[in-house]
## 1
Amino acid sequence: MSHDALRGVGPVPGTEARAAPEVEQLLRQVEPEYSYRTLRGTWAAAFSLIAVAMALFHIYTARFGTLEALRQRSVHLAFALVLVFLLYPFRRRHAAGGRIGLPDLAMVAAALAPLVYLFANQAELTLRAGSLSRLDFAMGVLGVLVVLEAGRRMMAIVPLIAALALVYPFLGPYLPGPLAVARISPERVIEQMFYTTEGVFGIPIGVSATFVFLFVLLGAFLEKTGLGQLFVDVALALAGWMTGGPAKVSVLSSAFIGTVSGSSVANVVADGVFNIPLMKRLGYGARFAAGVEAATSVGGQIVPPVMGAAAFVMAEFLGVPYLTIAKAAAIPAALFYLSLGFIIHFEAKRLGLVGLPRAELPSLWRVLARRAYLVVPLVVLVGFLLHGASPMRAAYWGIMVAAGVHLVTCVLERRPLAWPREIWDILIHGSRLALPVAVATAVVGIFIGIVTLSGLGLAFVSLTVTLGQNNLFLTLVWVMVACTIVGSGIPTTATYIILAAIAAPALMQMGVPALAAHMFIFYFGVIADVTPPDALAAYAAAGIAKTDPFRTGLTATRLALAGILVPYMFVYSPTILLQGGETADIVLTVVTASVGVVALAGAVAGYLLTTATWPERALLGVTAVALIFHDLRADAVGLVLLSAVAAAQTLRRRRSRPRPVSEGAGTR
């Protein structure tokens, strides 16, 4: 949120002075990937050159064609590992210093050696598949180890999961029941992990090396051009004056920003530093304000057209165009934000909160007249996707147009000579932002490779179905719990990839359509960012609001309840994903689900037409379930219950109104 947008709103003590350092500090606290060195001098120049080279490599291959799969992915990973070992220290507490020592340079060399070896000898390695030489084996072991070390420097749990998976083929013969597996030789494990597209260089990093990097780079361009700021100002103009205005601004701005950003924590710190103090100033409790920011920011990952790396991986796993995933996500995302908007509205009505005076808000038409051109790259991106272009081609042209738009901005601001330097900085920033995804997908590829090689996935399918007692609903609950546990402290992309390998097949075995099964897992991987005990987005928001992180996570979970119920619709009402069904059926499903999430908001906030009693809240909850899970009989029951609650509240409001004093009353 710009300081211009805050002008006249009233003081938020110390916000301007502390915004930037507070954001930096919060990111370092809640996200290990932000615990990086501040490089200076020669090392900063070296890092910049490598980062720009990485960005230009991906732009070039997007325009003129990618290399063979293993070579494209090995170059992508080589760039990423070199940058990681330069940027991230061996121990996080050393991140404050910018000094790079011999151990870091040794890790750079250790990372380059196996990847250069793979790139240079790919043809020969393919010919002698199944019979690795000693040098092949040694290079493969080194390659796997440096990937795990890079993951350890950036993440906490994912490398540990991958390391445990690597041990499984050797312990498998001694395990009981369905987890038992025949012993697999170390040579076969290393070949699978490092010399095929079934391990480190599997589908996940393939997506990172093509689509994801370009979309991350496009996001960096759009951030620099000021599109995010435009979204925040538009949200202020549209919703700032409404009941509980600042909280609704958070909903709108997070939804808008979510169209180009796939990081919930980044969304929290981008506008939470300003939105949360504004919400507190208008009367919202600190925990509620932080919960709103966390819930709305997490929702940004499910908003098309850019939904984070996991959505691109999903498209590759399912073998469908990315546009299919984006279309399927549109209605559920709208329901999620509709629920949040009404919860905030009802909470504001219950507390008697008002919006900001219109005179203190930016003018929508003035904002659009001055900066509407900033949306052009996003329009180009969506246009290419709608016309059937690949995500890679669409992102490439979006980047080209964004660079041109930024030139226009520099000219309008009378600083055209700053454009080359700022483009250089954007390329560096984009490459750095892509590192977590590149490393996470490489590390998770180890887990996927072991699952494929050992048949571990079949064991998990059998176990999941057994725990669910062959009951679809119980199986869905088990998968939801697994997603929440695995997703605690793990990036959404890694959570999705792990669960897609071991849980999605169990759902599909029980008759759930593939897209619905994968979207179910994706949603709960996203929601894990606000559910305790390790709710990263909620903890970031709590740090800004100066409130208890755990209780903020509980509040954010309550606010994001629609995100917990809506995924069940994917299974029981797949028309919500625009999969099959007549147009009339889709419209009816959307209408009843919309009414259902409004009822859900009333149950959560304890307000519909007036403050709700506990029995009324319970009835609203039952109404929500009945309407969200589309069935004509259930819909009828839901509408009857909603009408009963509305009638009871209307009657109570009329009785509580003071009666007008009749003329002459009080005289004799």
## 2
Amino acid sequence: MKNSNKIFAEAVKKHQENKLDEAEIMYEQILKIDPKHAATLHALGLLLTSKKEYKRATQLIKKAISLKAHEVYYHNLGALFGRQGKNQNAVEMYEKAIKLNPRYAEAYYSLGVTLKDLGKTDAAINMFEKTIVLNPMHVECYNNLGVVLQEKGNIEDAMLMLTKVIELNPKHAVAYNNLGVIFQESHKTQDAISMFAKAIELDPSIATAYNNIGMIYTDFARIEDALSMYEKAIELDPGYSDAYWNKAISLLTLGRFEDGFKLYEWRWETKYKSIKEKYIKPLWLGEESLQDKTILIHSEQGYGDTIQFCRYLDMVADLGAHIIFEVEEALLPLMQQLTAVKEFITKGSVLPEFDYHCPLLSLPLAFKTSLETIPSFEKYLYADMQKVAVWQNRLGEKKESRIGIVWSGSKTHKNDFNRSIELQKLLKVLPKEYQYFSLQKDLRENDAEILEVFNIKHYAEELQNFADTAALIRCMDFVISVDTSIAHLAGSLGKETLILLPFSADWRWLQDREDTPWYPSVTLLRQKSINNWEDVLSLLSYLEKT
């Protein structure tokens, strides 16, 4: 019989030729002859990893390491742990590989990738930089370093890294796609499209490039075109959660709620995945009976979403449910007026016992909401009249109609560039015969000085929560707001409100409408072209007719 080493050489050749079954038989044959053949244990472990037989693969590579502590074995065991989502175990293996061989570039690179996945950005950058010192031709390292630097906001260095990738490999489709993302986020749309198109030219199967083009179409309010791009991305990658979520948003924007809300559940496979994982009881989406059951409804995403969709809680209560509502602390005093809720808890509190849970924005799906069946009310939230009386006294004698204004949202909002407006630009066009009040909690640079010049009162210190803001809104005759949580609050209170929308507005405002089925008291003023607030501001003469 051939000796073990000769059989091993033939088995490795079969393995490299992707003749996995034949190679596996030969590896097993060797281990019958020599159960302590470390190289075979390791190689068979790799083969079984490719066949997703992770448990036995782990056992084999661990045994190989026990026989021979080799840096490659540690590295590949780390990669095996990584494939199973055991990132911390992977880190330990890569570190052991590096300890055995401090010049093992691939171990530094793999450790960098794992640290990146763990959100340890600075540590990942350090590993990538060490990899490049050891291997200046490591294309994938430059690519990953570029992505991490972009995520940190170091755009110039990110572009240098991605440009280096293309220099080393002009056919690296992923690098072109990543460059496109940088251009897209820098609002250099044509450059972004050019990069995504190049990525697709080099690799027509690169689903992310189609998804990214779809997002650009969305920015230009070309929703049908965006939809076709997301569908192409899904065709190429049937598990592409971001593409499904983007498709959902397109369908919702088009008013196709029944299909849109079904796909909207894909959000739990994106950045929101960790949120859902903490609710271990069954998810309720309208199928099971809630009679005499306890359901935990938990808010998600922004304050405005909570204000908009809390309207569904009465409908849940009508099914016989005992409702626990988990909500942000800033909203709690406002939400406590909801009589459908039996118990309130703040975000981050220890969860009580419950039978089912449902994210707040899944309630439209649970109730099979269509454009025609939106639960719409003139008002469904109310200001605390004691707080209103305090504000009335604080504001003093009313000499002119009072208008509350909101001109910017959170700086961290992904669409802040489009949805916020410069305070001075807004104030210059407002009719002079009214008295204006700031409804904002936070000011940006120079806003305080501008408010003072225009003699507009700002009450940030007194707006401790949304119940305080609701009471101040109740004292207004009218509200003008960009698309923020305060716009939702005004609408929920039934206050006549103008919402100033960017060219590509959020899905809930649909397309080409001046009204909204969500809030009867709201009028929508839309940009006619991207970043052109002049179109919208010219319409504020509407105030003179009210």
## 3
Amino acid sequence: MAEYDNNTSVRGQQIFSYPRAVAATALAGALTIKPSPVLAHAFGERYDLPLPLGLFLAGAGTSIFLTFLLLAIMLRTRPETARVTSFNLSCDGLSATLARCLGSALRGLSVLGLFFLTYAGLFGTQSTFKNIVPTLLWVGLWVGMAYLAALLANPWRLVNPYGVLYDWAERSFAAITGRKTLSLQMAYPRSLGTWPAAVGLLTLAWLELVPQGAERPAALAVGMILYGLYCFLGMAIFGRNPWLEHADIFTVAFGILGRFAPFGHRDPERPAQAGDSWVLRVPGSGLLSTRPVSFSMMVFVLLMLSNVTFDGFLETPLWNEMLSFVATSSVLRPLLLELQSLGVNLLGLIKTIGLVSFLGIFLGAYLLFALLMSRAAGRRVGAVEMARWFVLTLAPIAIAYHLAHYASFFALAGQLLIPLVSDPMGRGWDLFGTAYVHLDVGVISARFVWYTALVTIVLGHVIAVILAHVQARRIFEDDRSVLMSQIPMLVLMVSYTMSSLWILAQPVVKTQALG
């Protein structure tokens, strides 16, 4: 297949392709692959905006500002009455039995899928594009599961194959020994918080963006096995739920996304338990909290934002200009040559620095604005506590950016699953008659991607502004404190709206300068 540089538009009848280098990452303990910017934004041609990009950015920022004004004028519900209505979806009798049977079937399929992917990765072809493992893990699970968790409901707690295997092992252990649990039931250290998941998420992003070669199916299978051992060890020491809720990247990430979804269990602040009742609720209302999250959870949410933003930033001309500046700098050149002589991958090093720097920028900026919020509200709540109270209201922004950033990738790369299901191991099979189905690059256009990104980003920020305002009314008793505390948050959200749209626009549209 033809492959293209980061800033090249795919034109005419050129074939849509995977990238030159496929970055490795982990999903459910597995390494997975992600395409280059070409894959995420491969279209017949770039889209010419009908208006200068600056006007779109200004309009998006104005929409957020007007939302804030309407909330300040119209929403004056007292904190004690600011409750969100939900509808109980609990079932009993035959419906409950059918639900349990469906749940058991899904759990069994998830374990069967884990075993099959491990086998296919180890013993199938090692071609990235002819083995189903990389595509299914990245497209079908990481991107697809995120969409499902955010837009409908979070199924990960039910189908997590490592959790299911542990449950089965524990039941077998109980039947043999009479003990109720396989775990040592040591108390999970409160100080550890969700730091294991946060470190894992940063590592996942690094594997996705920096190293080369780990996209091979065998490497993914080994990653799945190693991550499974990591999960089992933690569950065996601290118990299933305490470990997964704090240390499993995907339980934590999909849990945050699931709190936005319209379907969820009644108390989103408590880990899901067997037998919990499900409710239909206003989308996003599950992100409202009655207590501040931990500092480590705050960092995790900011990582979700900074990682995907840095991923998008790598596709911009500004990134290439920065690389050119570093390469030609008379100050940095001697150091770079020395590092290169020591065998250091300079591009990987620069990306690593950029990835960590983006987290530092996001964390520093958010804490700064939290300090401004604290001062604006009369210092009734400290800056760090303020940051912990409001960080979940940023989750709709992370969801919106995720949807916008991966929309074209999901629509295009997802088509690879059609032929791969017929020949999952690259052995020349045609099990379902789809092995020779070709990708249709015309299924999505740059115009569609741009307007999808525009609507999604603005809507995500509007929802975030609304949630932050409602959260403020739960914390502060007087209208002045509510209003003043939200002005810095408004500035932060408007700034991020405009910058994120600018980043997303770079590989998709031809921009025009104002004037």
